[in-house]
């Protein structure tokens, strides 16, 4: 099966700090890959490099057949990055909703402005996605009137409204109170069951253990260990993986 995501020899520097070091991996269609590791290991930077929110210095990213090289410049390069982003949906730690827009307005903004969809089409699509995350009744509420869990579910609906090939989740529950985490993980579980390809940076080991096809453990900008949840949680091979998991007990 042809991979839907292929990352090849990716390097990223922040000034003198070498954050990602020769990262290569592939993701199959409908595969769920969780990326775990200590804070500062490069997990979020890797995710942001996949859709070029951070510019990789070297290497390439391929999503659904479109290859973009790191370190590029110019109009053609910017168009490639734009086209790649259309294939990826991103959900952030901090929701990043527009405060002056209602839930529905947040969801339909991308399809209208980026894809040129008519308002009627976008509203129909937006309502389907709000219904999917259980928030169609909140369509006219502003983010300030929604709980953190509801805001994150709107953010997921917004990402899904762009009809991406791959969903990227950057610690989507880390800003939530414990009682709200379950409602976001429930939506993610629904997407898994529908066959969405997913790359998730997460501290929710129960989600990773239950739903990931593979887990990538990052340490200091590299993959220290890659395996199935059963392999990685029950019989980790790398001492750094064992040390990390021991602190979660």
Summarize the structure in words.
The protein is of the alpha/beta class and 249 residues long. The protein has 9 helices and 10 strands. The protein has helices at residues 43-50, 74-86, 103-113, 119-132, 148-161, 178-193, 205-211, 229-234, 239-246, and strands at 5-14, 17-27, 32-36, 58-63, 66-69, 88-91, 166-170, 197-201, 214-219, 222-227. Strands 6-7-8-3-9-10 form a 6-stranded mixed sheet, sandwiched between helices. Strands 2-1-4-5 form a 4-stranded antiparallel sheet, covered by helices on one side. Helix 4 (119-132) packs across helix 5 (148-161). It is globular. The termini are far apart. The model has no long low-confidence stretch (mean pLDDT 94).
Treating each run of at least 4 consecutive H or I residues as one helix, how many helices? 9
Shape: globular
Strand numbers in spatial order across the main sheet: 6-7-8-3-9-10
Query: Ranges with pLDDT <50 over ≥5 residues?
Result: none
């Amino acid at each position: 099966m042809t991979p839907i995501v292929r990352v090849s020899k990716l390097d990223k520097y922040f000034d003198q700090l070498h954050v990602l070091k020769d990262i290569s991996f592939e993701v199959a269609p409908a595969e769920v890959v969780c990326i775990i590791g200590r804070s500062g290991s490069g997990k979020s930077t890797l995710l942001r490099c996949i859709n070029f929110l951070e510019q990789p210095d070297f290497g390439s990213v391929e999503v659904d057949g479109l290859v973009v090289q790191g370190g590029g410049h110019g109009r053609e390069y910017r168009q490639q990055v734009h086209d790649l982003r259309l294939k990826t949906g991103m959900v952030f730690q901090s929701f990043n909703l527009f405060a002056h827009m209602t839930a529905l307005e947040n969801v339909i903004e991308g399809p209208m402005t980026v894809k040129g969809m008519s308002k009627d089409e976008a509203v129909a699509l937006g309502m389907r996605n709000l219904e999917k995350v259980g928030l169609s009744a909140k369509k006219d509420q502003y983010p300030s009137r929604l709980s953190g869990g509801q805001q994150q579910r709107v953010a997921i609906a917004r990402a899904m409204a762009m009809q991406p090939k791959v969903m990227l989740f950057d610690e989507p529950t880390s800003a939530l109170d414990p009682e709200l985490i379950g409602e976001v993980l429930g939506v993610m579980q629904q997407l898994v069951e529908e066959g969405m390809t997913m790359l998730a940076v997460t501290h929710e080991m129960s989600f990773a253990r239950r739903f990931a096809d593979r887990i990538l453990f990052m340490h200091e900008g590299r993959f220290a260990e890659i395996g199935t949840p059963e392999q990685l949680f029950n019989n980790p091979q790398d001492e750094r993986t064992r040390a990390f998991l021991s602190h979660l007990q």
